[in-house]
Write a structure and sequence with these properties.
Oligomer: single chain
Helix content: 55-70%
Order of helices and strands: HHHHHHHHHEE
Shape: elongated
Structural class: mainly alpha
Strand content: under 5%
Strand order of the largest sheet: 1-2
Largest sheet: 2 strands, antiparallel
Number of helices: 9
Radius of gyration: 30 Å
Distance between the termini: 40 Å
Length: about 240
């Protein structure tokens, strides 16, 4: 945006009022208005400096205070912060999705197909049947979580490697913590597998099991999404507090 040079009268004194007409209902118009404001702000700074120069005053006279932010976090801290905001949600989502449909298929699905009764007349204790279903669902959920973590790691290394190096975060990501996430997946998979099987076993059809498990799914996802809220921490009293 090219602005005309100010007249001597404008440089000497007075304020020129500029009215910017734009349409807030159009994104391009709002973006253009912001660009015009930035150009006018730069032009105003130049004219203020020119007025001070004409009066023999230093430009710093109109700038009594300046501030500069100093980041105390190390690159490793930034990498750990990035992982802490992404991994919990991904971990819960992937393990939940991995346990959702297998739990339905091995409980309500067998009821609907009429194969559950045949399974119970097999020469195996009912505890063994339930334990086998539980381990099958937990194994699928655990495998889903591990594969997704591996996929995310490869995506970060191969896809975003140059960008991370340019930002200085390539060596800052604590990959050891990512590896330990695989250990955390084990109890998570067992918990969600037990929860999904317990709820899905109450249904008599595949569709009914989906209706029962959907609120459970949402109730488990919402706390994981809270980890992405800025300033949210877990206090000693085990309650969530938003730090202002």
């Amino acid at each position: 945006l090219m602005l005309p040079a100010a007249t001597p009268a404008q440089r000497a004194e007075g304020t020129v009022r500029v009215k910017i007409l734009f349409d807030a209902a159009r994104d391009r118009s709002s973006q253009a208005e912001e660009r015009v404001r930035q150009a006018l702000r730069r032009f105003s700074d130049e004219q203020r400096g020119e007025r001070l120069r004409l009066r023999g005053l230093p430009p710093s006279l109109a700038l009594p205070l300046t501030s500069e932010g100093v980041n105390l976090a190390t690159s490793r801290d930034l990498g750990a912060h990035l992982l802490s905001s992404v991994l919990p949600l991904v971990l819960v989502l992937m393990v939940l999705l991995g346990a959702f449909y297998p739990a339905i298929d091995l409980t309500a699905g067998e009821k609907e197909r009429g194969t559950l009764e045949t399974l119970f007349v097999a020469p195996a204790a009912r505890v063994d049947v339930v334990a086998g279903k539980f381990l099958a669902v937990a194994t699928i959920a655990l495998t889903t979580g591990l594969l997704n973590i591996a996929s995310m790691g490869l995506t970060v290394l191969l896809g975003f490697g140059p960008a991370l190096k340019a930002a200085g975060l390539a060596a800052a990501i604590p990959w050891s913590a990512v590896a330990l996430t695989g250990v955390a997946l084990l109890p998570t998979a067992f918990f969600f597998a037990a929860l999904m099987i317990a709820v899905a076993s109450l249904a008599r059809s595949f569709k009914e099991a989906q209706n029962l498990l959907t609120p459970i799914y949402l109730a488990c996802v919402l706390p994981a999404m809270a980890s992405q809220l800025p300033g949210l921490e877990l206090t000693e009293d085990a309650d969530l507090r938003l730090v202002l």
